[in-house]
Specification:
By secondary structure, the protein is mainly alpha-helical. Helix content is 54%, strand content 5%. The radius of gyration is 12 Å and the shape is globular.
Length: 85
């Protein structure tokens, strides 16, 4: 549900405002999905509580892998990519 809210907010703002994706981010795949929906930032509160401080490192490394596999030069290129399909 939180990813759907990010999509709606991104669409409503026309991509002009930074959106923080929150809720249920435990992995790079979770963060990648929120970023594709339009999040410029992601909050790791729940993931941090359940997975511990190393979750941030795992997510950053995983996002770097996603960026490479997608052929992007920077993660910001993925922000809102769901809306360009």
């Amino acid at each position: 549900r939180s990813t759907a809210v990010v999509r709606v907010a991104y669409r409503a703002a026309g991509g002009a405002l930074p959106i923080i994706g929150v809720g249920g981010i435990f992995s790079a795949a979770d963060a990648w999905e929120k970023i594709a929906a339009g999040a410029s930032l992601v909050q790791l509160y729940t993931g941090l509580v359940y997975e511990g401080p190393l979750v941030a490192r795992r997510i950053v490394r995983g996002l770097a892998d996603h960026v490479r596999r997608a052929g992007l030069s920077h993660l910001r290129e993925h922000v809102g990519s769901d809306h360009r399909k």
